[in-house]
Amino acid sequence: MEDRSESIQVRCDKLPGPVIPRTRLQVSFVRICFSILVWTFLIQIVAFGKLWHPHFISNIANRISQVTGIPLSLHVDESIQSTPFLPARNYSSNGYLRVSCNGGLNQMRAAICDMVTVARLLNLTLVVPELDKASFWADPSNFDDVFNVSHFIESLRDEVHIIRRLPKKFNRKHGFTQFAMPPVSWSNEKYYLTQILPLFKKHKVLHFNKTDARLANNGIPLYLQKLRCRVNFQALKFSPQIETLGYKLIRLLQEKGPIVVLHLRYEMDMLAFSGCTHGCTKEEADELKRMRYAFPWWREKEISSEKRRSQGLCPLTPEETALTLQAMGFNKETQIYIAAGEVYGSERRLAALREAFPLIVKKETLLSPKELHLFRNHSSQMAALDFMVSIASNTFIPTYDGNMARLVEGHRRYLGFKRTITLDRKKLVELLDMHQNGTLPWDAFAAAVRSAHEQRQGQPMQRRVNPDKPKEEHYFYANPHECFCEGTNCNGSLSHSNSSKVL
């Protein structure tokens, strides 16, 4: 029996069967595992680098993108949300701070940063800010329509206790009357500690009904300046619906090449407010004047347009902008994204700019009406899309130094001093007039324009300080250099080693 079984076993071993390519399967499996490990490592580097230093992550993400062709820079901000939040800060609250922000998106954004900082200084409980619904734009958006409210609350819990709404006992329905006031503009921490804090002990709830520029640029303790930075660059994430569409917009643009964002502030409200009518017809100038008189809070009514223009206080016209960009070396192959509302004069005024730069696009031309439907008639949400593209662009050029221009400039500095060309409008007006009246040939004009802007491209620089005239200081949010330094000493944050290169 044993011999027979052995012979059967031998015959079975010799039966033919499929040959499994084990070596090839093993190699493929190892390659897949290795790829997963490499990408996991890169993602961890991106997430860790963002927390460690913005310049570090910008360089790493850009180099990875160059090798792989994948625009990792689009997802840098998204990596923050995977970071565990710090434990809540324990403190005895001195009262509730309710704030109503006024102005457009970027004016309100800066105000939110200021009000979080004030709440931290005074140990207050902050109610989620209310956004302006009564301004010129009449935008009905709430905070959570524009910003990610959960992220805002949780990401700052180690600094400030933030609640979505006041406790019911402080509502008018329960007979409670809130004390409302606008804090004094450009105030430092002494004002808030000596003038405002005692009011909370008396009233428990304070409503700041105006919040624009209510905190000084300078003279603020470093920990408060850094908190402003943290709110601006980390806590204020846009709402999921804005981010989703914004990242799609950026991807569509990046697929076509480098992006130049032109913040063409040639809009009806800006021209009416500033009194700038250069290039307008008489009928248009009269229309702008009537609009200026229609809004009582626009205090200045009689304005000399030419005088303002000669002082560099007017936004460049589309025609002036076209000549300026050509002088700087941009050509017909330059992809230009216009980040602005409706240009006054519409396509008639854009003709010269389109002729010089045929690759002009806007969000309305890149996205379908269906995609933009939810954002229509919501100026803050539309501006948020432009803000995202402006931050991600290769070059940002504002034609006027309004709130958006300044906040984008500061954000791009924070992300590694990305190229931002701040136009010297006073010098440009002089050069443009000389060129157009025939006294300055094109080559000389172009050389003069380039020379005037060599040191106006977003390089690191110390913020200008003028304690007696804080409105004339360089705006904190345009150049928040305290955000760039590590530790508790910022004196060396703008050293030669990091101040000479323009990205």
From TrEMBL:
<dbReference type="InterPro" id="IPR024709">
    <property type="entry name" value="FucosylTrfase_pln"/>
</dbReference>
<dbReference type="InterPro" id="IPR019378">
    <property type="entry name" value="GDP-Fuc_O-FucTrfase"/>
</dbReference>
<keyword id="KW-0808">Transferase</keyword>
<comment type="pathway">
    <text>Glycan metabolism.</text>
</comment>
<keyword id="KW-0328">Glycosyltransferase</keyword>
<dbReference type="GO" id="GO:0016757">
    <property type="term" value="F:glycosyltransferase activity"/>
</dbReference>
<keyword id="KW-0119">Carbohydrate metabolism</keyword>
<dbReference type="GO" id="GO:0006004">
    <property type="term" value="P:fucose metabolic process"/>
</dbReference>
<comment type="similarity">
    <text>Belongs to the glycosyltransferase GT106 family.</text>
</comment>
<feature type="transmembrane region" description="Helical">
    <location>
        <begin position="29"/>
        <end position="52"/>
    </location>
</feature>
<dbReference type="GO" id="GO:0016020">
    <property type="term" value="C:membrane"/>
</dbReference>
<keyword id="KW-0812">Transmembrane</keyword>
<keyword id="KW-0735">Signal-anchor</keyword>
<protein>
    <recommendedName>
        <fullName>O-fucosyltransferase family protein</fullName>
    </recommendedName>
</protein>
<dbReference type="GO" id="GO:0009507">
    <property type="term" value="C:chloroplast"/>
</dbReference>
<dbReference type="Pfam" id="PF10250">
    <property type="entry name" value="O-FucT"/>
</dbReference>
<keyword id="KW-0294">Fucose metabolism</keyword>
<keyword id="KW-0325">Glycoprotein</keyword>
<keyword id="KW-0472">Membrane</keyword>
<keyword id="KW-1133">Transmembrane helix</keyword>
